[in-house]
Amino acid sequence: MNPSKTELIIVLDRSGSMGVIKKDMEGGLKSFIEKQKTLPGECLVSVYQFDDRYETVFETRPIKDVGDIPLEPRGWTALHDAMGKTINAVGARLAKTPEADRPTLVMVMTITDGAENASKEFTAATIKELVERQTKVYKWDFTFLGANQDAVLTAQSLGISGAKSMTYNATAGGSRNLFASVSN
């Protein structure tokens, strides 16, 4: 593993309810990325967006080349499917990467403003198994940021430590505070 390499994976909800905080979420993400650019070492960023459809925005982009991350709210919240597809895709990609080129730290940050209501392929129990395996075996670091729910309980039901979760208000101020806290 490359001790100076980190991969930041963002799983971003773009369901219709995110429309209320679209601009604030985009600005918060931009501010977060800008702060991360100042840290030492190599960081690659991958972004996946979801509603009731799943999309790879980009993968393994050097953080210095990451600009705005546009958010186009629509649809329902297939949270479990998005997390499962992301974990499986990133795991498969890293398994094909030569050991010396793999990041020492893989950080998965899931951001949502609502509860699961549209997944068809994955259940909470399946996600919990995937998260626990990646955490224990590969030392991935998962963070869960959720609004309009108890993010700690939701995170724990998905195998993510309550200490690695945060409930935020789906408002302009809540979005700003969210990314300020995550950056710290």
What does this structure look like?
With 184 residues, the chain is an alpha/beta fold. It has helices at residues 22-37, 79-95, 124-138, 151-157, 172-183, and strands at residues 2-13, 42-50, 54-62, 103-112, 141-147, 165-168. The protein has a six-stranded mixed sheet with strand order 3-2-1-4-5-6, with helices on both faces. β4 (103-112), α3 (124-138) and β5 form a beta-alpha-beta unit. α1 (22-37) packs parallel to α5 (172-183). The radius of gyration is 15 Å and the shape is globular. The model has no long low-confidence stretch (mean pLDDT 95).
Topology, please?
Layout lengths: L1 E12 L8 H16 L4 E9 L3 E9 L16 H17 L7 E10 L11 H15 L2 E7 L3 H7 L7 E4 L3 H12 L1
Parallel strand pairs: 1-2, 1-4, 4-5, 5-6
Antiparallel strand pairs: 2-3
Helix pairs in contact: 1-5, 2-3
Overall geometry comes to globular
Report helical residue fraction: 25-40%
* Mean pLDDT value: 95
Query: What is the rounded Rg?
Result: 15 Å
Low confidence ranges: none
Strand content: 25-35%
- From the N-terminal CA to the C-terminal CA, the straight-line distance is 26 Å
Structural class: alpha/beta
Strand order across the largest sheet: 3-2-1-4-5-6
Count of DSSP strands = 6
Number of helices in the DSSP assignment: 5
Biggest beta sheet summary: 6 strands, mixed
The string of secondary-structure elements, in order, is EHEEHEHEHEH
Short summary of the structure?
The protein is an alpha/beta fold and 184 residues long.
